[in-house]
Amino acid sequence: MTRDESAAIDAFERLGLTSYEAKVFIALQQVGSGTARDVARTTDVPRSQVYSVAESLEERGLLAVQQASPIRYRPVSIEEAQTTLRNRFEREQERAFDYVEQVKRDSVEEETQEDIWTVRGRERVDDRVVDLVSNADDRILFGTRLPDLVTPALGEALENRAAEGVAITVVSRDEGVRDKLGSLEGVTAKRPPTHREGDKRSGRILIVDDDGILLSVVDDSGGETAIWSAGSLFASVLIQLIEASDEIR
Amino acid sequence: MTRDESAAIDAFERLGLTSYEAKVFIALQQVGSGTARDVARTTDVPRSQVYSVAESLEERGLLAVQQASPIRYRPVSIEEAQTTLRNRFEREQERAFDYVEQVKRDSVEEETQEDIWTVRGRERVDDRVVDLVSNADDRILFGTRLPDLVTPALGEALENRAAEGVAITVVSRDEGVRDKLGSLEGVTAKRPPTHREGDKRSGRILIVDDDGILLSVVDDSGGETAIWSAGSLFASVLIQLIEASDEIR
DNA sequence: ATGCTGTTGTTATGATCCTACAAACGCGCT
DNA sequence: AGCGCGTTTGTAGGATCATAACAACAGCAT
Question: Which residue ranges form the domains of chain B, and what is each CATH number?
Fold first, then answer.
């Protein structure tokens, strides 16, 4: 069992297959088609188990069963397997969220709660940044010294807002960041006036209108953690404090 | 626990969450945000379990944790949760199939094996039909008495083939089927010459070039099962037998 | 301070379920 | 009988579910 193979099996497991199912499917893709014995030979799945495993794979639409003696199995094409799995995923997701949308509380007033939230992980922070940006009505201020933190999704969101007349300022001491975002229609890119030499931990800063703020830091191992708040007194006070300093402006 | 709710929980489980995780996520969407106790109140998840469950949900990016006392939890928006899950799915699928593609045997000769395969389930049959159609070079003959078995994907596939100069004939005694497919560019729709009154079981028939055939039946409970073969002597013989009769033509 | 009460967050402990894995069995064939 | 095929049964291990116990702490009356 190679390193790659067990990684692939793990991935299949996260897609909802059991490890036997993953192994049988992979084995069948290797040998093209074959009997239970053929499959058992190329994997460490016991032959007696192949039958039931193949049956459940058939129900999932990942292989075809030939009624013969001995029974032969044949995998569907890779493309077909992918679309089958994807369709299944979309169907389940729809079912799951349909209900959630039904029962979701209309959280109207809740926006003004005095809450500061923590988000861990680069992608999570990405999502939150885009979400905040997308709700901007008046102005957006975004800053980071790390080009990696400027994602395509952020660019799109900023462009959309700019098209709606939202004033957008990007602040960075990194030329790449300024070029990438400054080239967008309606986006102004600046250098921060001061330069703190020892700054190796700050990640990004985002200010939206006068009531939304996000601030992230990057720890030693590269993990990003952000705090954010929107529509709270906290947020507006923090914004005032930050903008009173001349770090960004 | 309503019927809908447990269905939604099942769907979340198939997406890879545990039932506790699903319950906590749903509960948080209902209440907006809250403490472990709030969550435990609106579900049957024991409060002591909420903490660890919420932690794993945070790792999945489905909720945010507020560092306070007591700890407060807040779900991400439904849209964000969906894209997070979808991204995860796509990533895993890519990982899984990358490996499969690496090791997939170049099954060259294998096409000409003498095999007849069985496919169970409407969607599976749909997929196979589209796959066979897409590989047609010369001509396609498709027939069914059931309008439901004419899917959009089939229509597209036929249109594509027609554009490549493949001769396409659709045979049905159902006017709706003839209209739907006959209206496509390059598709000829016909009525079958004979009419067997007692035919309540046949599903669809597909003949591709002179070497691919698929035949499906519908059982009492509406389930569809198909047999098919391509590139085999079986297939060509069957095609000759069928076309010798005047049932379709 | 002291003691009481209720809550919070953590941890431990069975019960239960599913998968992984192994072995045996019935059957048809030669 | 001997052999391969397909089915069935049994067991060990792990994850999840469900409940309980625990220390730490805040509020409040003595």
Answer: 3-100 (1.10.10.10), 115-244 (3.30.870.10)
